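Suppose a colleague, Dr. K., hands you the sequence of a protein chain of 507 amino acids and asks what its three-dimensional shape might be. Before reaching for any lab equipment, you can write down a predicted structure in token form. Begin with the sequence itself:
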Amino acid sequence: MIVTTTDPRDGRQHPTDLVETDESGVAAIAGQASRAAQWLFDRGRTGRAELLEAVAAALESRRADLVATAEAETGLGRARLDSELTRAAVQFRMFAAVLRDGGYLEAAIDHAADTPLGPGPDVRRMLVPLGPVAVFGASNFPFAFSVAGGDTASALAAGCPTVVKAHPSHPLTSRASADAIASAVRDQGGPEGVIAAVYGEQAGRSLVRQSPIRAAALTGSVGAARAIQAAIDERADPIPLYAELGSVNPIVVLPDAAASRSDQIAEGLFASFTASGGQLCTKPGLAFLPTGPGGDRLVDTLRAQVADAGGMVLLNERIRDAYESGAAALEKAGARLAARPRIDAGAGFTVAPTLLEVDLPGLTAEIADECFGPLMVVVRYRDVADLDAALAAVPPSLTGSVHSGPGDDIEAVRGLVDVLTARSGRIVFDGYPTGVRVSWAQHHGGPWPSTNAVHTSVGATSIRRFLRPLAWQNAPDWILPDELRDEYTAIPRRIDGRWVPGIDRQP
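The predicted structure, expressed as tokens, is then:
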């Protein structure tokens, strides 16, 4: 079947020269990935770091074409897409640094010794690649969470060939991204199979059933995760699925913060829930705002900003329809319409941003549900003491945010943070959850239903998803990896229970 692409700005569908990948094609691609694994492994940390840096350069060298292609398929805007492509390149370069550092290997050596239980053998342990990985591209990030995204970068860094199931919202962008990465692989002397893309819903299900595939990663919906998991369950041997899913990301504004900087907070909230058409997994869906003059000013400013906003283009028809039905369901559940501009939707997938409002006693599970798109529910509360119980009823999220001022009770802040800590993966203070920094300390994950695993999908430690521990007992020196030999000092290791920092780091 021919793969089509749609410009969400006008809703027009166009055929491409791509075809959906059939069962035999998927099997052949998985087989190539399996054969390419040895090449990636043999390059070692330094060789893979050089490859990742070459990928970053290849993406940047094709910036104009990649951004133009993505703009026509997503309507996200040139400036946003240009920034996202930079983010993709940054992720590849960051994992090159992770490889050179070597700490991710968790290398440990216990020399043979007498123990309270008798003679102990020599045991050495570190992390090794899982094998080929299936990555499912996200609709809302055609670069940073798709073919050229962090899942691909971390998998290749780990030494795992990667097969990406292209998202139907941007198939041409997916192919162009895969071509850029493949060109870097070829320039490094690599074989076919280090990176590949498949197309079509059935191809995605078939991909995770292929025996060479050893893990899968998804940024998407709970429904998509369940469908992928169902396909995985058909395998004779299980593999992990690392899924980053939906999230409400509650924000709490305490009374002194509202009183002292209502305009500033209103501006930040508006930008955070409408950026990229509200199509971000970290978009704040619930904002708990106090009653009283400060909270009233904040809400009035938000209303005015939303009323003056224009229409926002969503990524595809399915997301547009889900947004409109979701907004209607929230209103039916008791949320009051606070602001929604009149817009000319035209022929594309343009929608109006929406601000809803509810009093804290009226907050229900239905109103606390995620609505993907430019919509936020303001929850008005009278007493800070009532917030702990209310937040405990909000679905666990990727993030939880607290805005406070000098006049707010420190113990109240501490109590809110305790509640949010149990129900989110990142706590944001006096800021907004959108804009996930790519860094060593970042954690982008959270309790179900925000993710289905304890791992992060952003940052240096996301590489851990695609590695497994392997121990060598009484192994001859010649068969050990360099990183586990006594004379090797370039990476940090734990030796006989003591942490030994790396010295004479490899370039």
